[in-house]
Batch of 4 targets.
Target 1
Amino acid sequence: MSTAGGIIRALNSGVKHLAIRRFTLRYPEQKLKFVGDGFQFNPDTGVGIAGLRGRHILYHEHCTGCQLCSVACEGIAEAIGMVKVNETWKQNKKAIMPQIDYGKCVFCGLCVDACPFYALYMTNDYELSSFTKSALIYTPAQLGIKPKISQDVEIKIDDRGATHG
Ligand code: SF4
Ligand code: SF4
């Protein structure tokens, strides 16, 4: 790219952001409210649905215990372990489901991509800090709970970045 072209491109990028209202989030008094759900993946179309990559949600009734999420994570963070569950679903004969260690998870979303049964998505829950390592390990039961998000700053993400309403 020529020098003039580079300058025009830089100016164009700057101008595009002039009208965006900037803000400082006063966390934890103010919290983010992301529009829509977290990151999802549609195995039928092979297309990911954009969203925040926070804590996962596991839909027990869809999970077959196939372990593909765990295999996907093996080369990344080894954050997923398959554990026994009390529920016995027809489609989950081994009665195993993923347990996720958020002390290891890097929130890449590959486990969500790998799940062929619409059982594992990510949510907008980003408040996961804890004083103990053990509290960072989420059992299938904990992963099955939809996070309560009562937050007061609505964040919209588009190609110009994050803005609030
Ligand atoms: S999002 Fe976390 S649990 Fe899933 S594959 Fe990535 S590191 Fe593993
Ligand atoms: S969450 Fe999905 S990929 Fe993981 S064991 Fe269950 S069905 Fe298989």
Target 2
Amino acid sequence: MNKLKVHSLESFGTQDGPGIRLVVFLQGCNFRCLYCQNVDTQPLCSKAEIEMSVDDILKLLEKQKPYFKNGGGLTVSGGEPTLQAAALVELFEACRDHGFNTALDTNGGVFSPTVNKLYDLTDLVILDVKHIDEEKHQKLIGASRKNVLKNAEYREKSGKPMILRYVLVPTWNDQDEYLHRWGETFKNYKTVTQVELLPYHTLGVYKFEELGMDYQLKDINPPTPKNVENARKILSQYFSKVVVK
Ligand code: SF4
């Protein structure tokens, strides 16, 4: 049985999926977002990580069960959880068998048969599509967006629910042109239950400093309320529910 490399746990999460959720943040990420707020989750291994089995997580879920009445359950986030897709397949199969709702908060960067299987087992996929332009995506994220789009298409074909997320980063992806292109790309998706707009913030900068890493977006300020409202209005032309988080 595979064990999961866990960075940290949040027992009463309310931001990543419906209701109250146990949020398990996994260690390791394949992207290098310039604005990463959890840069300490990026390395594949960390001295601080905890190894947890499926049973360990099921025990925590059983303890929290009384709080899951309003659609809550388990969310797995990261880092990038699909780097540990095989272990997650085991975990999500167990959740299905025990009646626990599952959500997967993913950057979409891994596309493989195991990840396909994981998507099929997941009640709600929360997929970040961080930039619609390939060249800009590579510069901002340090990787191609091709697998992200393939995963979005795969989920759409499955007919199961998906939330799309967009971190709004001034001067990088807040231009009207990119927002319209993003909206055009997904406007006909029937599985998108809502779009979440996350204004860029600098709360994770101290982690770069602690790790002796260069923070390249030093000169970028969080978007103004006017910028956020502009983005919300544009995306609302394409989607019935756009939520600013
Ligand atoms: S995908 Fe998330 S964890 Fe990975 S680098 Fe980007 S912001 Fe950080």
Target 3
Amino acid sequence: MKKGVSLSSPFLKRITLLSEKVDRGLFPFNRFPNLLDDEFSLDFPTPVTFFTGENGTGKSTVLEAIAKLCGFHLGGGGSDHQLHETSDQSESVLADFLRPSWLPKVSKGFFFRSDTFSDVARYLDDEGNSAGGRLHEQSHGESLLSLFAYHFGTSERCIYLLDEPENALSPTRQMSFLRLLRDWEDSCNAQMIVATHSPIIMSYPGATILSFDGESVEPIEYKETEHYRITKAFLGNPERYLAELFEDEPESY
Ligand SMILES: Nc1ncnc2c1ncn2[C@@H]1O[C@H](COP(=O)(O)OP(=O)(O)OP(=O)(O)O)[C@@H](O)[C@H]1O
Ligand SMILES: [Mg+2]
């Protein structure tokens, strides 16, 4: 089939809160009353979107809700996998109050969460799906990159939701991951929404970066992110930061 412009990634264009139906006594509305206010909506104008922000600001909560909207198992894994119930039994209440805008609706893909990666890797090994080698016979970082490189296809439209893919990846492997992002984007068949703390990963050109650090989720430029600024400042003068951190004199380092 020819690639029609309007049917290329991104497929999920927007999510909007159905605010009139929300029970504000429930998590996550009681935890994030400002973020998830009556106006809450997120736009995904580009094939790659990053969620960035401090720990506990709601990135995984929103990503999990999107996973449910896609019909993915909330414990993580691929849309084709018949996973047993994993250790994570959580339900996404938020998803029940979100309206997704798709063009077209996509239900293929993968929800990667680093905390259940081991269960998913065991499932793929047990299935005999050994593209790229058995995942459990590789190091943590190697198996992660094998999963992304060999188990994520682009032959049909798919959406990849990745929660902290940098987990266990060396800086060099994080750059290999950027190369994979480019291949997926070039296929026009893949949309990626990635929660990350990695300043290397969020440097990917042309991505939308959404910051969860303010009262509402807002687009932010790469070099304006806390992660970029703090990492750059720290690496530029680690002695000064360490001295401040340990209330010591810079000369002693
Ligand atoms: N089911 C729940 N009930 C109550 N609180 C919860 C529940 N799930 C998560 N939380 C809390 O909501 C907050 C947001 O969690 P979330 O995992 O979305 O943050 P995050 O932005 O992904 O953080 P991190 O960068 O550390 O992964 C956390 O403080 C967490 O303890
Ligand atoms: Mg998280």
Target 4
Amino acid sequence: MSRRHHPRKVVAPPAFKGYRPYGTSVDSQGEVELLYEEYEAIKLADYDGMLHREACMLMGISRPTFARIYESARRKIAHALVEVKTIKSVYGNASFDKNWFSCKSCHALFTMPRQIDDKTCPMCHTEEIIFINEPK
Ligand SMILES: [Zn+2]
């Protein structure tokens, strides 16, 4: 039973389900679970070059909480690299402003109003789409 935290605002879910090592003589030694909010923290701080005090406001959390999530993300990624682990992206405590869907067939990531009746993938038009705004 995991404790529910205050939701962390995430703009968009990661556009991948995971990363797998290749070109190694060692078989992948298990996996690390990177939470959506950890991905977001890395993206904001290291990719967008945002200051922590700006990034925490965007995610609707305190600066110490942001720092903890960011540290956790970096530790997990470092472990994955050094210990040849697969990185798997998982939901965590994310909250989104938009309704996000992913396509089972072409893996496209897109938003649309949830109340639309005809829900198909805008890329390949399959009906095999998954609503991803909630933990699996
Ligand atoms: Zn599709």
